[in-house]
Write a structure and sequence with these properties.
By secondary structure, the protein is mainly α. Helix content is 68%, strand content 8%.
Length: 331
């Protein structure tokens, strides 16, 4: 009848997953090394080294705690058994390896060429001097910043211009008033001597001419007073603006000097080396996928063998039935 095929063993998926994880870590290490080359340029050099990370402080504390445990046991019991202590408490003497992690951390070291180092030192020195001057400016400006804004020492805002206008008017009307008064008296005497009465049209026309002269002089004085008042107001405004500008300059110049000095005191690197550039890509080995493929292949082979075994048994049973039927008919 033939041997019945045995099912294939189940794939070790846990082991495959662990192997896949390790393959990923190994690929990441190789990729990191490929992407961190040593660089030599006219500006300097960059070297990459890999060192483990040691928690020195944690190790020192753990070692001190262990020594305290040992000394305490000796003082209390006269001895100390590290094996029994570990069996009871699950602790043993700490080692530096217990506090060492990530041995693949890259360290990039940049070194200037002698010429670039000299330029960097000089630039740093100059910027430190500027920073010192900025500090002096800050100390000098404390008195300015600490005082409130006070415009009392600047020219005041111009007041009413009515007084100026009235002064100009009075000055311009002083002589016309005197002259017109004389003209009026002379005209009155001449008209009276000529026998022209005051209520006559000729008398009124003569006096009206004198009144027009006085009115024209008055209008001119009013206009001149307005022009002078406006000019005087503009001069006062300009004087106040000049005073305010000078006062504000006294407060702002120290602050501007501090800003200019401090903005130039930042130390910068005159050249930049390549950093961690993820250019090269390394794919990990497909361990887990290969395990899955192997398991599927074994299952396919087992199913095929099962099918062949079933077909064989069906054929044998068919031949046996035909033989029995033929024997019965012969009988």
């Amino acid at each position: 009848m033939g041997n019945k095929p045995s099912p294939p063993p189940a794939p070790d998926y846990i082991g495959a997953a662990q192997a896949q994880g390790q393959a990923n870590v190994d690929a990441a290490k190789v990729q990191g090394q490929l992407n961190n080359p040593n660089v030599v340029s006219p500006y300097g050099t960059q070297t990459v080294t890999y060192h483990p990370t040691v928690d020195q402080a944690g190790y020192d504390k753990a070692a001190q705690d262990w020594q305290n445990i040992v000394q305490g046991s000796i003082q209390k019991y006269g001895s100390f058994d590290p094996v029994a202590f570990k069996q009871q408490w699950g602790k043993s003497q700490p080692t530096l390896a217990d506090f060492t992690q990530n041995a693949n951390t890259p360290t990039l070291t940049q070194t200037f060429s002698p010429e670039q180092q000299a330029l960097y030192n000089q630039s740093t020195h100059n910027q430190q001097l500027l920073g010192g001057l900025g500090t002096q400016g800050i100390n000098a400006a404390q008195g300015v910043i600490g005082n409130k804004v006070d415009y009392s020492g600047t020219p005041a805002m111009p007041g009413s211009s009515e007084a100026i206008r009235q002064q100009v008017y009075d000055a311009m009307m002083q002589r016309p008033n005197e002259d017109i008064a004389v003209q009026r008296d002379n005209a009155n005497s001449q008209l009276t001597a000529a026998g022209i009465p005051k209520d006559s049209l000729a008398y009124q026309n003569a006096m009206r001419q004198i009144d027009r002269q006085q009115n024209d002089a008055r209008n001119q004085a009013v206009l001149s007073g307005g022009v002078e008042a406006q000019r005087n107001y503009g001069m006062d405004i300009q004087s106040r603006q000049q005073g305010l500008n000078e006062y504000n300059a006294q407060r702002s110049i120290p602050l501007n000097e501090i800003t200019a000095l401090m903005s130039g005191s930042q130390v910068s690197n005159p050249f930049q080396m390549p950093g961690y550039a993820q250019n090269a890509q390394v794919a990990p080995a497909p361990v887990y996928a290969a395990t899955n493929a192997l398991g599927q292949y074994q299952s396919d082979v087992f199913n095929q063998q099962q099918a062949q075994q079933g077909n064989l048994q069906s054929g044998l049973f068919g031949l046996g039935g035909s033989a029995l039927m033929a024997g019965g008919m012969a009988f």
